[in-house]
Fold these 3 entries.
Entry 1:
Amino acid sequence: MTGAEARAAITGPFGPMTLVERDGRLVALEWRLTDGSPTPLLAEALRQMQAYFDRRLARFDLPLDWGTGLNAAVRHAMADIPMGETRTYGQLAKLVGAPAQAVGQACGANPLPILIPCHRVTGTDWFGGFSAPGGVETKAALLRHEGALLL
């Protein structure tokens, strides 16, 4: 499937989402519904997403496009944060050897929210942003779903 994209949509408790596959890897999660036919990878991704929504899955096992450079380092660090826990931008910054602001930018550029859990990254004394519709309210809902936020 060189260069060609396939899409599959799901509506979950956090709204409509479309997963995008290219070259055998997931490359994006879009916060909207679009038409598409699931490939075997997308069908598995939808199955895992539903299991996550049902609280039967804590970590995704899918081929993802991690990006390159600092973005890849930050995405791998985010993926290592266990479900139900959070880390600060500063903690990730120390881990990847970059300024906290650059880590925040890399979090904001994450094309695979939920699958690469950027919602688990917060500021030291502030919640941080989130690019999904609903912004930080959706971030809070994801953290409550995972048991990381009791508000």
Entry 2:
Amino acid sequence: MSERFLKAKAVIVTDFKGLTVSEMSSLRDTLRSKGGEYKVIKNTLAVKASKGTVAEKATDFFVGPTGIALNYENPIEIAKEILNFADKNEKLKIKCAIIDGSLLSLTDLKVISKLPSREVLLGMLAGTIQAPVSKLACAFSAPISKFMYLLEALKNKKSE
């Protein structure tokens, strides 16, 4: 478990009390499809395994029934999936989350989950950077284009 905590980009600590086996399987399948996993763990083992990792910040939350969602690729995706599952199934309670080394509350996690994906944000950044350059290119080519249209109009007028 220590190795998993070391590799994880997101660690979300939950209380799964009351979930049925089929609901738990559904949650695990959903998280697995997003590059994550869900582990039910004893609290004493979680405390020991978290020593020296980012999950050490969550040791105060290792009480009661504890399930831990881990993600190794895209932390925002797993946050969205856990929140969607918790909205549909009130038995799953989110205790805390650690994303990129920062301890987050449920409110913080909800705010972060509403952010667009990394690819969308990079696309928006590229569009923002490209827009002024594109406008500048149009501004430089406009006089040349107008001059060409003027010559074409004169040619057409003389040929009539």
Entry 3:
Amino acid sequence: MDHIYLRNLEVEAVIGVHAWEQRIRRRLRFDIEMETDTRSASDSGDIGDTIDYAAVADCIRAIVTREPHVLLETLAEEIAQTVLERFHARSIRLTVGKPGAVPGVREVGLVIERGRA
């Protein structure tokens, strides 16, 4: 199977469990890998036959900036489900990083993998 990916997408967000975190914007970093079949796009040369990675990036930016979030887990799940539904990916592997969230640690975060039901 084929994979379309976006690496190191950075978006400013309001996210965190502490009250002070809900008053500031911080950078989040995303790596997205989507499983799909690219053969029809290869044959047609039509962007409509594949996953438009610019549209995926715009979608993630819209979700992240729409409202404050508390947990990375909640945000990651919303992004994964939206991408699966809207872009018809067979599966998604999503990494969400929160640089500088813990003193002495370059980045914390999580990786989730979801597939179509």
